Fold these 4 entries.
Entry 1:
Amino acid sequence: MVQRVLYISYDGLLDPLGYSQVQPYLKALGKSGIGLWVLSFEKPERLDDGEESTVLRDKLALCGVNWRYLRYHKRPAMAATAWDVTRGILTGLWLIACHRIRIIHARSYIAALVGLVLCILPGTRFLFDMRGFWADERVEGGLWPDGGVVYRMFKRLEKSFLERADAVVVLSRRGADIVEQWLVGCNPRQPVAVIPTCVDLELFKPDDRPQKPRNSNGLRLIYLGSLGTWYLIEEMLAFYAALWSRVPGSGFRVLTPSDPAVLKSAMARIDFPSEAAGNITVDSLPYERVPEALQEADCSIFFIKPSFSKQASCATKFAESLACGLPVVINAGVGDHERQVEEAGVGVVLKQLDHRHYRRGVEEMISLLSDSSLASRCRETAEGGFSLEGAVQAYLKLYRGLISTPPEG
C-alpha cells in the first residue's frame, strides 16, 4: 500500500535550514515511491523574484514531491503565527480531501499545531516530529520569560501533541528517555523513535586530493553556523587562543550567516590576543560549497550552552564535519554527542570550559590529529549513525507502521 503523507514544516524550504535539514529528506522520501505532499511557510524576501522557488518546485517534482507553500508572517508575533496556523489548517484540509492523505507528519511545534487539528479527520494518523524541546529552548535561549504565559501555553500544547501522536520522533537517545518519562501513564501505543540530524553523504565527503602536511603552517580550526544565543563564541575564541599559544600560526575560520560584528564584540570582551586575531577569517558560503570549507580544515569546533533542552539536540554541523573526515572539539552536555565522540574516538570533549581544560583539549586534539586512521574513522561514524539514507528508511518504517495499525477511537 502506498503511503500518502502530508509533511508540514513551519521552516521554509528556501531557508538555510530548509536547504540543509528539510530538502534532502523530502527528496529522498519522494524518490522512495510514497505519495508526498509538502506544506511549508516561506519568508516573503525569499519569494520576491520567484526564480528560486520555481527551480526548487521543479527539483522536488522530479523527486516525486508535491510542494505547496504559504507566505510566512512575522509580526505581530502571536497574531501572525495564529494567522499562519489557520491558513495552514485550511490548506491542509483541502490537500487531505483532494489527495486522500492518511499520514500527517508535523515537523516541530508550530507545524504540530496544524497537524493536531488535521488529525481529527477520520482515518488520519499523526506523526509528531518534535526534534528538540522547542518551548524550553525558547526560555533557556532568553527569547521567552521563564514561566510566562506563552511558555506555559506551549508546554500544555506539547503534552497534547505527545498524547495525541501515533508516533514521536526525537533527535537524541537522551531526549527520547525524557519523552518516555513524560508519557508514563498515557496511552503507550506510540513509539518514540530516535532519528538524529543526518547528512547527505554524497555532498559531504572527504577531499580525495592530496592534502598538505598537518602543522606545516599551524592547524586549521573551523566553526560552522550561527553566532550568539546557544553558541558560545567567547569560549570558542578562548580555545583558539590556547591553540595559537601552543601552535603559532594556526588559523580559525568562522563560516557563518551572522553579522561579523558579533565575533568582534566577543573578541573585545575577552581581551583576545591581537597576534592571533589576524589569523581569524569570517565569511559565508552557499550550502553546496560548505563541504569545501570543511575539507580544508584540520578540526571542527562547536561549543553549545548546555541546558535541559539541549539534551534533546543533535547539531547539524556534527554530522557534516564527521562526513568530511573531520574530527570535532565539543563541550559536554549536548544531546548524545559526548558519548558518540568518546565511543568512536572522533574528537575531543571538554568537560568544563575554562583555561585549564582548553590547554588540555588542545593537547588532546594535537595527539588525535597524528592518528592516520582518524579521517576514515570519522567518515565511518557518519556513515554508521548519521546517513540520510538511514534516516529516510527509519521514517519509511514509521509510515508503514502507522498505516498497518488502525487508529484508536
Note: The first strand starts at residue 4 and ends at 9.
Entry 2:
Amino acid sequence: MRVCIIGLGYIGFPTACIIADAGHEVVGVDVNRDLISKLKNGGLHIVNENGLADLANRAIESGHLTVSEKPEPADVFIIAVPTPFKVSGAYTAAVRPDGFDKAALEVAATYENPIADLTCVEDATQSIVPFVKKGDLIILESTVPPGTTADVVCRILEHGSKLRSVDELFVVHAPERVLPGKIVHELIHNDRIVGGVTPEATQAGVAFYQTFVQGEVIGTDSSTAELVKLMENTFRDVNIALANEFAIICERLGINAFEAIKLANRHPRVNFLSPGPGVGGHCIAIDPYFVIQAAPQESQLIGLARQINSAMPNHVMQLFEELVDEAKAAGRIVNAVGILGASYKANVGDERESPALQVAQMISQMGYRAIIHDPYIERYSTPSLSEVVSCADMLVLLTDHEAYRRELSPATVNQLSKTNRPLILDTRGFFDRTWDISGFSVRRLGVGS
C-alpha cells in the first residue's frame, strides 16, 4: 500500500518508519521545514528512543520512506498531529520581592474551561482532501475528545472532497498507547484499538494494522476508541492524584508516604503510583481535560484529580520556602539552586508539560539563580552535573533519573560542593536516610518530620 502520514512527531515518525519497514511505501509529511530538511540530510529529530535510529536509517535507505512538506496521493492517510488544549485563563504564580506569596499556595494551579484545540487535526484533514479517493482508508491517531472522528474529520472530508458521501471512504480512529523511551517496541507489540465510523471502516482499519502490529488488533466504533485512550491516561492521572494527596497527608501526620505506599502495594489488589512534583507529558496532563470537556457535570472526580496534580508545583514551592527559611534561621544563604531534572519522568528526554520546568521557573521568579541539569535533554546537559553541584547552595531533585542515582552520593556531593553539604529538596523519594546520617539537611515531599 501507499501510505501518507501527516505529522512526524513523537508518534508519527516512528509509525512511518515501522510501516515502511513492513514493506509499505510511505511518505511522511510535516509543515516544519527545518524538520523535513534535517531528515532529508540524514539527521534525526527524536533521540533517546531505543531502536529508532537504526529503524529510520533502514526505512529511508530502502527507499520505502520519503519525507515531504505536502501530502501526496495514497491508499491510506494517517493523521498524527498534536492536540493541545486552549484555556480561557492561564496559570500565574504570585510572587513578591522577598519570596513566594504563601496565600497563593492555597489556590490550586488550575486551568479555566480547558477545551481541546483541534486546529492541527482540522488543518491536517483539510490538507489531504484534494488527494482522497473512493476506497481510501483515513486514520486519525491523534488523541481527541469523543466524537471528533465522526463529527470533525468526516465533516471536513465530506464537504471538501469530490466524493458523493464520506461513506465512500473508510474512516477510523486508532489511538497510540506507548511509553516514551520504548515507542518503537510498543507500537509493534502492544495491542491496538481500531474504531471505525462504520463497521466496514473498522474491518479495513484492523486489516491494515495487522500488517505491522504484532499485538492483537481489536475493532470497535470510533467514539469508543476515542474514549478508551482518554480512560487509560485519566486512570493514571487519578491514581497519581491519590498518591499526591496521601503524600500531603503523610507530611501532616509525620509519616513517610513512599514507605507507606511500598507496604500498601504488597496487597495483591493494590497498586499505588508514586507521588511527585506534578504530572507532565503530552498525554496524562492533557487527556483528562478532553473527558471533562465532553461531560463536565459527570466528571467530578476527574476534575478534582486534575486540580490536585496541577497544584503540586505550588506545594513543592511551599516546601522550598520552608527549607530556605530554616537555612536563614541557621545563618545560611541560598542563592544558587541546582535543579536536577527537566523531563517530566525518569530516564526520558521529554520536557512537554513538565512540572520540573514549572518549578524551576517559579524558583527563578523568586530571584534565585536556577541552574537546570538533565542528562537526557541536550540544552540542559551543560553545565555538567558536577558543575551544577559544585556551585549550588541547594539541590532540588525533580526527576529521578537513574544517572543521578549512579553519580550522586553523600561523599561525591561533599567533595564537589563549595558550600559543604548543600540543602536538598527531594520531590521523588530519591535520597535515602544515609544522606541525613551524613549531615545533609534534606526536606522530602511526602515525608513528615
Note: The domain at 2-83+118-222 is CATH 3.40.50.720 (Rossmann fold).
Entry 3:
Amino acid sequence: MNKNLNETEELLTELSAKLPDTEAEVMVAPAFVNLVDALRTLEGSTIEVIAQNMHFADSGAYTGEISADMLQSIQVNTVILGHSERRTYFGETDELLAKKVDTAINKKMRVIFCFGEELKERKGGEHFEVVKKQLSKALFSLDAGAWDQIILAYEPVWAIGTGETASPEQAQEMHAFIRKTLATAYHESLANKVPILYGGSVKPNNAAEIFTKPDVDGGLIGGASLVADDFLAIVRAI
C-alpha cells in the first residue's frame, strides 16, 4: 500500500526510461486504483503490470474485492497470491489460496505464488515442513500442465523487517528443497522449469550474490522497488 497516482506515474516513468537491456522479465504491481494509469504509463514498455491480489469468485457479495475478470478486462493477466502480508494481516489460509489459484489457472492467468516460514518456525527447525505444507495444500492438486502458469516466490518472513538476515546460502538451501519437493510431487523436468523467486529483503548490495545461486531465478522485491534506481540496480544484477 504505497504510492498515490502521481507518485506511481513518476516511479513508472523513471523505470521505463532507465530500464536497461535485460533478459529478465520485469513486473510491477501497483495498487488496484492505479492499475489502469500504470498500463497507460508503461504502454510500449516491456515492463508488465500485474495485480497484488484477487478474489476467487467471478462476482457477488464480496464488497471491496477484485475478480479475475475485472483484472483481465483491463489487460492485467498476472496476479500475486499468498503474499506474507495477506496471510499475516488478512488471515488468508492455504485452503483459501487454493481456491484463488484454481480460479486464476482456470482463467488462464499467471500466478506468482508466495509462501514462507515465520521466525518462530525457522528457529524451531520447522521451516522445511512449513514450506512443504504451504505448497502441497495450495498447489499440489493442480495438473502438471497448470504449472506453466505458476511462478513460485519464497518469502522467509523472518528475514523481512525483523532485523534478522537470511544469507544467500540459506536462500539456496530452501530453493533447492522446494525444487526437490516439486520433483517428488510431480517430476524432475517440471521442477527444473518452474521459476522460483526469492523475496527476503533483496537490495542492490546483496542482489548479485543471491542471484548467482543455482536455484534462485529472480526476486520478489519489496521496499527496494519503491526507489527507481534501487530497483533498476537489482534488475541489472539478474
Note: The mean pLDDT is 96.
Entry 4:
Amino acid sequence: MKAFVFPGQGSQFPGMGRELFETSNTARQMFEQANSILEYNITDIMFGDDSDALKATNVTQPAVFLHSVILAKILNDRFFPDVIGGHSLGEFSALVSAGYIDFEDGLLLVKKRADAMQKVCLKNPSTMAAIIGLENNQVESICSQINEIVVPANYNCPGQLVISGSFEGIEVACQKLTEIGARKALKLQVGGAFHSPLMEPAKKELEIAIAETNFKNGSCPIYQNVTAIAMTSPEKIKENLIKQLTAPVKWTQTMENMLKDGLTEVVEIGPGKVLQGLFKKVDPSISTSSASL
C-alpha cells in the first residue's frame, strides 16, 4: 500500500515553488490563479528570500498548500496513491489533491483558516511546546492536572508530542514535564495555541465556510487527523475537518494505523521531509521519498 502525505505549517522555505513555476505551464497557471483568488501576489513572497514574511500564519498556510497541491497536480499519472493523509494544514492539501474539494474552494478554505487563526493569535496570544522523550500518557496526565488551558496538540511520533495552550499553562507544563524526565520541553516560535480550545473562535468562522463548500467523492481514502482512520464519506470528512482546528492531530496514530493496514511506501508531497522522518521513527524499514517534477 502506497500513501501520499502532505506536510503542514513549518515546512515552508524561501524560494518555495519557484522551480515549479519556471518549469511547468500548469503550475504557472495555478499560481497565477491563486494570486487572483487571494487578491495579492503570494508568489512574490514564496519565490522571494524574506523568510520572516513567509512565517506569518496567513501567508504560510496558503503557501504550503499551494506548493503541495500544485506539485500533486503536475505529477499527473504519477499521482496514484492507495491512501492519503496530511498533517494539520496538510489535510486540506490532501483533500484537494484527491478530488474531494476543488482547487479554488480548497484555497479559499485555507485562506479563511489562516486569517481566522491569525486573528485569534493577535487577540489572544498563546503558544505551543514540543515535549521530547516521554510517553503520551505521561504528557496527557500532566496537562490534565494544570488549572490553565494546556492540552496535547500534535502527536507527531512516539516520544514527540506537542502541547498547546496559554503562556502560563505551557510554562507550568514544561516545568512539570522536565521534572518527570522529559529530554526536552522546547517552546515553539508560534503565535498561537493551535489545535486547542483557544482556537474555538477560528473554528466557528471556518465551520461556516466548510459547511458551504461542496465536498465530493475522492480518488482514494484519507486518514484524517481527528480520527486517524481511513475515511471516504464526503459528509463524515466534512464533519472531521470542522473539528480539526480545536482537536489534536493524531499523526502518530495515523502512521501506526496505516502500517497496520499494510503500508509499504510513503511519498511526501510538498516542501520539506518532516513527515518522512516521522514515519522512519515508527518503522525504520518503510520506503520513503519526496515527490519530484
Note: Residues 280 and 286 are 6 Å apart (CA to CA).
